[in-house]
Amino acid sequence: MLRLVISSLLVVLMCPVATGDGKLLPAPRHHHDMVYDVARSRLVVFGGNVEGEEGLGWSAETWELASGRWSRSESGGPPGLSSHALSYHAGRGRTLLLGGVDADRQLAAGCWAWDGKQWEPVGGGPSARHSPAVGYDPKRERIVVFGGSGRGSDPMWEWDGDAWHAVPLTEPHPPLVMRAGFAFDPVRQEMLLFGGYLDGVQGGTWSWNGERWIRLEVAGPPARANLAMATDPTRKRVVLFGGSDAERDLHADTWEWDGRQWRQIDTTAGDAAGEIPAARTVAGMAFDSDLERILLYGGRGAERQAYGDLWSWDGKNWRQLDRVAVGRETP
Questions:
Q1: Are 143 and 163 in contact (CB under 8 A)?
Q2: How many other C-beta atoms lie within 10 A of the C-beta of residue 87?
Q3: Confidence class for position 121, pLDDT limits 50, 70, 90
Q4: What predicted TM-score, i.e. pTM, was given to this entire model?
Q5: How far is CA 25 from CA 7, 31, 89, 280, in A?
Q6: 78 preceded by cis ω (within 30°)?
Q7: Which CATH number fits domain 2-320: 1.10.620.20, 1.10.10.10, 2.120.10.80, 3.40.50.300?
C-alpha cells in the first residue's frame, strides 16, 4: 500500500484486489460516489473510505469500469475524499465532483471536473459541505446541488456545464438535508428528492422543476438516510436501495418510483427470487446505459465493514457481477 501522510491521518492509495484471472479490482469502500460516463461507456468511481493497514483511510483514486474490467487512473486530481458527490453532465461529457470530507476530517472546498483523462479545478460554486444531494437534470442540462452538512448560507446551486448559478429558496422547500437520495424523474421530467437527515431521519418525497419545490403527498419507503438512488431512463423508473433508519438499522429493500407512486419490489418471491445485496448504507449507484441496468457498488454494512461487490438490477432481479472479499467480515 502506498501512503501519503497528511497531519496524523492517512490519504491512501490502496493496492488493487487481484482476482484469480488476473483482473484488478478497487479495494472495498464506502462513502464514495460513482456515475456512468455515457460518452465513454464506462463507470467512474472516485474516493471513499477504505480499510488500510493502519485503519480507516481516505482514497484519492479514480477507477473506471469498462467491458467488465476495472482500471485505475494515474492522473492525480482531487485529494482523498469521502462523503463527496459526483454527477455526470451529459451535455458537456464531464463528471463534476464537489464537497466531501478530507483526511484531516475537514470540509473540502472547491469543485473538480473529470473528462476521462484528467481532473481540472472548477472555479466558483457552492460553499464547502459534505453529503449534499446532487443530480443531473437532462431536460434543463443542469447539475442541481441541494443541502449538505456544514454548508454556508447557500443551500442550492445549479451548474450548466460552464458556470455556477446560485438558486434562491422560496417556501415551500425540503428540509436542508444531507445524505438524501436525488435523481431525475423521467416521467415528470423533474428532479426527485427523497429522505435524508436533518434533526432526525426524513421521509418526504419532493420534486424540483427548475423553478420551485413541490411536496408530493404520497406514501413511500420508511424514512431513511444514506440510501442509494438512481434513474433508469429505459424503464422510466427511479430506483432506491437500502439506507439506515432512525434506529440506525440498515435496510436491503428495493423501491421504485414510476412518476406517481412508490412501490416496494418483493425480491424474495416469484421471478425476483434470488440473491440480493446485503443491507448497507453509503453505497454508489448509477445507470449503465450500455447494459441498460442499474449498478450498485460498495457501501458499509452493519458491522461497519466495507463492501467491494458490484450488483446489477434489471427491474426484477439483482445479479452479482463480481465476487470480492469484502472488508473485515462477509455476511
A1: no
A2: 21
A3: very high
A4: 0.90
A5: 29, 17, 26, 20
A6: no
A7: 2.120.10.80
